[in-house]
Design a protein that fits this description.
One of its GO terms (biological process) is intracellular protein transport. It comes from Rubus argutus. This protein has 465 residues and is an all-alpha fold. The protein has a domain of 183 residues: Ypt/Rab-GAP domain of gyp1p, domain 3 (Cyclin A, domain 1). The chain has 21 helices and no strands. The two termini are 17 Å apart.
């Protein structure tokens, strides 16, 4: 049985909320104190998360051709973003300098990942400054940074083969219906498959089915009971996947390739839920999975792209194990729960900008629970466009002190970068601003985050399984 090998740590095996909004406490009381203003911002316990359209991010070019051969064209169109023009230099010189810098970085990265032994510290430094698009270098770098690939290059083929085989067996064991699995295992011959010399006169013989294997069995030990138990989870996953980056044709629409990608995401999330019955599926996990799967499935290496689903599953588990405690209601008040993390964000802001901290904490009483819960649990995937998300994740995964350390700094930087507007705003205005974060220069934001001082020892977490 393979399922135990990919489970999350024991401390995370608790009853999780059905939705990510259920831990936002005290908001209703605050809105009543403010006279009910801005009622459209209220979080209700159990309410589904609103899908926020990425700000400043245009839809991809319209196309009526949904053939699979157009996938690359659609993908490139999806991620086309407007380059900012410098104030003093013309757009031509800026684009040339940017192209030269990107080529230099790509050369450094390709040289590093092609070494017999990859220097992870150097790779982290390169990733923190942003990985170049295209060429599959980001896919390889993320796998290394997440510990999915070992530093020794000669072990890559063996590790990939073993992990992909494990995933295939898990899918066969847990995603096939009991009848499909039984037919596959038994290889029973149908009437038409009977040998020519066998006796076929008289009534056909039916295969005996035990009570536990009967589809109508209500017993908890029944394989069909366990199979149908996940029907509701599968339906929730399907609903959420329809809302996953609806502006990107890679994920949305009725084309053959978008359906293929959604099916792969569904398999990963449903398999995760079955392997982790104490956690199951929590709304929003689809948003965390999407960037990983996109990067891996767009790898120009055909073999890697064909195995994007298996690779994404393993890396998704590794990434989620670093923050899964945030979803656990029973751990809310513990040192690793979401409330403790929100408190650390507040303390980090106080240490780096006490004026802004006092204004939010005491003057307008805009608590981190009201806006940062989604930032932290979804790793900022709902606050920025897809291109910016990948750039931010380069810094998250490249941080030597772990994802959570850099995430806290970026969240704090998001507040500091909006200081002028926040100091002039009241409760409702500030909450709207932070729940619908405006366009910002991502490189500037990340530089502010890097300049923030913090004790990273409390955030250092292992990404290994």
């Amino acid at each position: 049985m393979l399922k135990g090998k990919l489970r999350l740590p024991d401390k995370a095996k608790s009853v999780f909320p059905d939705r990510l909004g259920s831990l936002v406490v005290g908001f209703d009381d605050k809105m009543d104190e403010d006279g009910g203003g801005g009622s459209d911002l209220v979080f209700e316990s159990g309410e589904e998360l609103e899908t926020i359209q990425p700000n400043g991010y245009g839809s991809s070019a319209d196309s009526d051709n949904d053939d699979f051969d157009d996938e690359k064209v659609e993908r490139d169109s999806d991620l086309r973003v407007r380059q900012q023009k410098p104030e003093r230099d013309g757009p031509g010189s800026a684009s040339v300098l940017a192209a030269i810098a990107a080529d230099d970085k790509r050369s450094d990265l390709e040289y590093e990942v092609n070494q017999p032994e990859v220097n992870l510290e150097k790779l982290q430094r390169i990733a923190s400054s942003g990985l170049p698009d295209g060429g599959g270098v980001r896919a390889t770098a993320w796998k290394l940074l997440l510990g999915y690939l070992p530093p020794s290059r000669e072990l890559w083929e063996k590790e990939l083969m073993e992990n992909r085989l494990k995933y295939a067996k898990l899918k066969e064991e847990l995603l096939l219906s009991p009848s499909e699995l039984a037919r596959k295992k038994s290889g029973a011959l149908s009437y038409c498959d009977q040998p020519a010399d066998s006796a076929v006169d008289g009534p056909l013989k039916r295969r005996e089915i035990s009570q536990e294997d009967h589809p109508l069995s209500l017993g908890k030990a029944s394989v069909w009971h366990q199979y149908f138990q996940h029907t509701e989870i599968a339906e929730q996953i399907d609903r959420d996947l329809q809302r996953t980056h609806p502006d990107l044709k890679f994920f949305s629409g009725d084309s053959s390739f978008s359906k293929k990608h959604r099916e792969a995401l569904r398999n990963i999330l449903l398999l995760f839920a079955k392997l982790n019955p104490a956690i199951r599926y929590v709304q929003g996990m689809n948003e965390v999975l999407a960037p990983i799967y996109y990067v891996f499935s767009t790898d120009p290496n055909e073999q890697n792209a064909a195995n994007a689903e298996a690779d994404s599953f393993s890396c998704f588990v590794r990434l989620l194990s670093d923050s899964v405690d945030h979803f656990c209601e029973q751990l809310d008040n513990s040192a690793v729960g979401i409330l403790a993390t929100l408190s650390r964000l507040s303390e980090l802001l106080k240490a780096n900008d006490e004026e802004l901290w006092r204004h939010l904490e005491f003057t307008t009483k805009v608590k981190p629970q009201y806006y940062a819960f989604r930032w932290i649990t979804l790793l900022l995937t709902q606050e920025f466009n897809f291109q910016c998300i990948m750039r931010i994740w380069d810094s998250l995964l490249g941080n030597p002190f772990g994802v959570q350390d850099m995430l806290m700094k970026i969240c704090c930087a998001m507040l500091i970068c909006m200081k002028t507007r926040l100091l002039s705003g009241d409760f409702v205005a500030n909450l709207k601003l932070l729940q619908h974060y405006p366009d910002i220069n991502i490189e500037h934001l990340l530089q502010v985050a890097r300049d923030i001082s913090s004790d990273s020892s409390s955030y250092r977490l292992s990404l290994s399984l």
